[in-house]
Amino acid sequence: MRVVEVFRAAYGSDPAGVWHAPGRVNLIGEHTDYNDGLVLPFAVPWGVTAAVSPRPDGVVRLASVQAPGEEQVVEDLDQTRGWARYPAGVVWALRRAGHPVGGADIVIDGDVPRGAGLSSSAALEVATALAFDDLYGLALPRMELAKIAQRAENDFVGMPCGIMDQAASALSEEGRALFLDCRSLGSRAVPLDLAAHGLRLLIINTGVHHELADGQYARRRQDCENAAKRLGVPALRDVTDLAGALARLSGDERKRTQHVVTENHRVEAVIGLLRAGAVREIGALLNASHLSLRDQFEVSCPELDVAVEAAVRGGARGARMTGGGFGGSAIALVPEERLPAVRDEVLRAYEARGWAAPAFLEATPAPGARRLR
Ligand code: GAF
């Protein structure tokens, strides 16, 4: 195992264990998690593997297969830089929550495709959290580990994300999507056997990340909180009379509310269709989700819109951007026999605009975080 070899070379001994946590794709339920809403992600076959040994002295040493020669040795977690802030943030969050964890020697190996928006950061956090949980005998429930990972990202890294990505990485099961209520944090595994219905979930990785995205996520979250406050509800999840709510709002707050409330209904509709075995019919809801993210939530970008439109033209049952937006990936629900046509149509559309070709991946629901050895 590559991560073990690199660990031996870096630290001169075998790791105490090796843990893996996956990235995720979100089938539907976008920008709903921080509104106490509903999401339906699943784990992808790519993720982060962490080889870890505990250290009694509290020091954390971090190295990465992808960043050779950039080992970081820290007594003060605040001194960590770049990618190492994610695992360091998890150690910080565990300690802050009162868990008695010491230090560790850590080597990270990741295979989440770059620029894909498939939550490599959540995978990095959850792999670290699970390793510390095992090594220090914490026996925390999976959702607690996801919350620790989210706290690391919110309060240490400084990205105000919701709980979806960390929960998907920590709790997913093979062959199933994770239906998560982000208020109660109750979850249910929903069987998702696309192949049995002659379907594939194609990930179209635009490879693009628009830098302006960074402050935009926090702004969207703020818009939602402002709208909820104006409506006198704890979160947009609680809006039951959408028409009435829209009549009381204007501008961005009105648009964000329209998206969040309808997106929660789309998640419930998808769950209903999956339960009924009408998998092909979820395509229309994916399309509606994309239009709402594009026009009401305003988190899409030309590369995502073109991928979605071309995929549908090529014969996809439905397509949408997935994840935070402003780049990353789109997903398309494609009948097996239409796969080549969909790919061609997307490639042609990109070529016509002089854009670099996107990468295609196929996603099947993979297992969640686990110990490998
Ligand atoms: C990002 C965030 F990290 C998630 O919490 C979620 O809000 C998502 O964007 C949008 O649905 O992945």
Automatic annotation (TrEMBL):
| Pfam short name (any one) | GalKase_gal_bdg
Write down the Gene3D superfamilies for this protein, in alphabetical order: 3.30.230.10, GHMP kinase, C-terminal domain
Concerning InterPro entries, the annotation shows: Galactokinase, Galactokinase_bac, Galactokinase_CS, GalKase_N, GHMP_kinase_C_dom, GHMP_kinase_C_sf, GHMP_kinase_N_dom, GHMP_knse_ATP-bd_CS
Identify which residues the record assigns to the active site. D165
Q: Which residues bind ATP?
A: S64, G115, A116, G117, L118, S119, S120, S121
> Start and end of every GHMP kinase N-terminal domain?
86-172
Q: Where does substrate bind?
A: E30, H31, T32, D33, Y217
Its keywords, alphabetically, are: ATP-binding, Carbohydrate metabolism, Cytoplasm, Galactose metabolism, Kinase, Magnesium, Metal-binding, Nucleotide-binding, Transferase
Q: What residues does Mg(2+) bind to?
A: S121, E153
From the UniProt record, give the pathway where this protein acts. Answer: Carbohydrate metabolism; galactose metabolism
Q: Name one GO molecular function term.
A: galactokinase activity
Coiled coil where? none
Any idea where this protein resides? Cytoplasm
Q: What reaction is this protein's catalytic activity? A: alpha-D-galactose + ATP = alpha-D-galactose 1-phosphate + ADP + H(+)
Protein name in the entry: Galactokinase
- The organism named in the record is Microtetraspora glauca
What taxonomic classification does the UniProt entry list for its organism? Bacteria, Bacillati, Actinomycetota, Actinomycetes, Streptosporangiales
Designated gene of the protein: galK
